[in-house]
Amino acid sequence: MRDIQQLENLATQIRRDIVRMVHACQSGHPGGSLGCADFLTALYFNQMKVNPTAFSMDGKGEDLFFLSNGHISPVFYSVLARRGYFEVKELATFRRIHSRLQGHPATLEKLPGIRVASGSLGQGLSVAIGAAQAKKLNGDDRLVYVLMGDGEQQEGQIWEAALYAGAKKIDNLIAVIDYNGKQIDGPVDQVVSLGDLQAKYESFGWKVTRFNGNNMAEVVKTLDIALQQANQQIPQLLLMETEMGQGVDFMMGTHKWHGVAPNDEQLEKALAQLPETIGDY
Amino acid sequence: MDFTIQNYKDTRSGFGDGLAELGKKNEKVVALCADLTGSLKMDAFAREFPDRFFQTGISEANMIGMAAGLTIGGFIPFTGTFANFSTGRVYDQIRQSVAYSGKNVKICASHAGVTLGEDGATHQILEDIGMMKMLPGMTVIVPCDYNQTKAAVKAVALHEGPVYLRFGRPKVPNFTPADQKLVIGKAILMKEGTDVSIFATGHLVWKAVEALSILAELGINAELINVHTIKPLDEEAVLQSVRKTACVVTAEEHQRNGGLGDSIAQLLALKMPRPVEMVAVNDSFGQSGTPEQLLTEYHLDTMDIVEAAKRAVARK
């Protein structure tokens, strides 16, 4: 296991990547990306068994991750690049014409690390369930992870999938919700409240764990416990409390940075709070 | 070609029987169904291969997503539900998780068109071919009888990439050879002729066969081509036929907009403009009735093809 400081340094560099990528093309979604940087860093650098330099779509013998809330592609791309799926300098092509780093993750351009397109919300949990079933059929004991947004829980397909996973006891699946309480139009509670999300999933037959997704030690520990609890005839949901915009003070505490790029001055202010730890692309 | 009716069978049984046979030969084939196992004739597969059969309940969006996920790991998923719930209801799931993601999912759709019958317009989808053929990379196949549907199941399993396979509910003449392979993208010349080319798909192929003899009595020597693959369209077969006959009738159980006729008219407009008459539903929903009543009501019957051929010939 890597030490926590090392993972935190990685997450800081990834946060730098995120704001630089979004600034460079003046579009994209920094808020949720920053909030999920700790989780994805821990997942890819500490938790999952992956084979980044020889990416295969089937991922046999590997853990799989699906990003359902595809708009936080900046954090996904940065983590994949930093983990070695492709060269970090390619991050500079984000959202540019002819780039493999499409606005939302896609497979068409064959970017290593992406296994399904996402962006139209609500679809990733179903795909992850299918991939988890494929692992069982193949006798492959690795796990399938999927990250969803909390606003995304308003999509009906999520509940079809949640019902199925609970009823069929899909236990090689770990679903995670970025529970930051914010969506494009405002606080989730004001747009359409999710009510008691934990109770909802529990009533659908899931084991739910709440944790602080912006505390690296807690993220690492929670993922480790989830791993130990896998394959016990119950699907697992990690309700990950995060702060949208985490790491950049003026992007925190508001939904306004969900899908807005910083200008030059704001970029400088953001980078001043995120020291270069590994080296910029 | 011999048009002897071997028996009367539903095309969905061709799907079910083909799938069960395929399951024996290819252990990578898995099937998913949204609570219509009996209607889709998937019972045999479900019974023989319970580990490879996924009952998803009435949740078609989840079914399509799961199918996309099952391809990751090397499986070949066949999803089964009515054509309406296989397409319009899950269009975005198919678009993003299957087509754009390039997943090897076979979307198998029964009860297409007005011949679904008494259930009425809520279930009689007439826009599905259009929706599916517009998706980049999607193959669209509409077999005409039991034997051809069974052959189609085998063919699509060998094809790498997403496929929409459309079939229907009623028992109809089963007349194509039991050993005839279906080659995706290769239309089948069923009868040579010189005066008009009839391009038919699905249930209307048999109606076109019936029209041939009536047309012969009228002195019109029609050519009949079974276009089981609507996308990719066998452009060479179309152009070769029309080069000879110089006029066209298309016949399908679908809206004019987006159907086979639309594809052929587009091809001809670009490469070989000739008169085209379309036997198809003209911008309306269906209704309850027997399949035969509905084919008559929406001008999809044998005599509609005959009349369309006469008009096409007159326009030359």
Walkthrough of the structure:
By secondary structure, chain A is α/β, with parallel strands linked by helices. Chain A has one domain (4-272): Rossmann fold, CATH 3.40.50. Helix content of chain A is 39%, strand content 12%. Chain A has helices at 4-25, 30-35, 37-47, 73-83, 124-137, 156-167, 188-192, 197-203, 216-228, 264-272, and strands spanning 64-67, 144-149, 173-179, 182-183, 186-187, 207-212, 236-241. Chain B is an alpha/beta fold and 316 residues long. Chain B contains twelve helices and 14 strands. Chain B has a seven-stranded mixed beta sheet with strand order 3-2-4-5-7-6-12, with helices on both faces. The longest helix of chain B has 15 residues, at 11-25. Chain B starts with 6 loop residues before the first strand and ends with a helix. At the A-B interface, helix 5 and helix 6 of A face helix 3 and helix 5 of B.
Layout of strands and helices, then pairs:
The complex is a heterodimer of chains A (281) and B (316).
Chain A: H1 4-25, H2 30-35, H3 37-47, E1 64-67, H4 73-83, H5 124-137, E2 144-149, H6 156-167, E3 173-179, E4 182-183, E5 186-187, H7 188-192, H8 197-203, E6 207-212, H9 216-228, E7 236-241, H10 264-272
Parallel strand pairs in A: 1-2, 2-3, 3-7, 6-7
Antiparallel strand pairs in A: 4-5
Chain B: E1 7-10, H1 11-25, E2 29-33, H2 43-48, E3 53-55, H3 60-71, E4 76-82, H4 83-86, H5 91-100, E5 106-110, H6 128-133, E6 139-141, H7 146-158, E7 163-166, E8 171-174, E9 188-191, E10 196-200, H8 204-217, E11 222-226, E12 229-231, H9 235-245, E13 248-255, H10 260-271, E14 276-281, H11 291-297, H12 302-314
Parallel strand pairs in B: 2-3, 2-4, 4-5, 5-7, 6-7, 10-11, 10-13, 13-14
Antiparallel strand pairs in B: 1-8, 6-12, 9-11
